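<tokenise_the_fold>
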Amino acid sequence: MSAAMKTTLCYRQAALDDIPALSALRLSVNENRLSSPDKVTLAMYHDYLTTLGQGWLCEEDGEILGFSVADGRDGSIWALFVRPDSEGRGIGRTLLGMACDWLFAQGHPKVSLSTGIGTRADRFYAAHGWQRELQPGDREVSYSLAAR
């Protein structure tokens, strides 16, 4: 790709106007799919972006490629998703870093999350120093990362 054709990824805080696009992106993923799309409502996005936490997104040419949402109540990652055709560009790593930095700045001593067993996300967190915990019978794997 020539320099003239190269576009820049833009990271910013997610806004309420972004909620429909965030929901559509969440429903487009290949892994960690919702068993029922009704499980995560637009009202939940609203609550996380206004009172329960904070969210960030990555866009390119006005199109949202990925987003993360941190839950300020318990220091967890509520959402981290990247469009399937945009994976492998470092977007998820950057968005996760933004969410973790915010949670640590809020005073949380560690960040936690869960994901599907055997997924790319499972391998990603394990490879990047997160502490993996799996209990017998669990359907998801839990991860935590201590503040540095």
The domain at 10-108 is CATH 3.40.630.30 (Aminopeptidase). Residues 91-105 form the longest helix (15 residues).
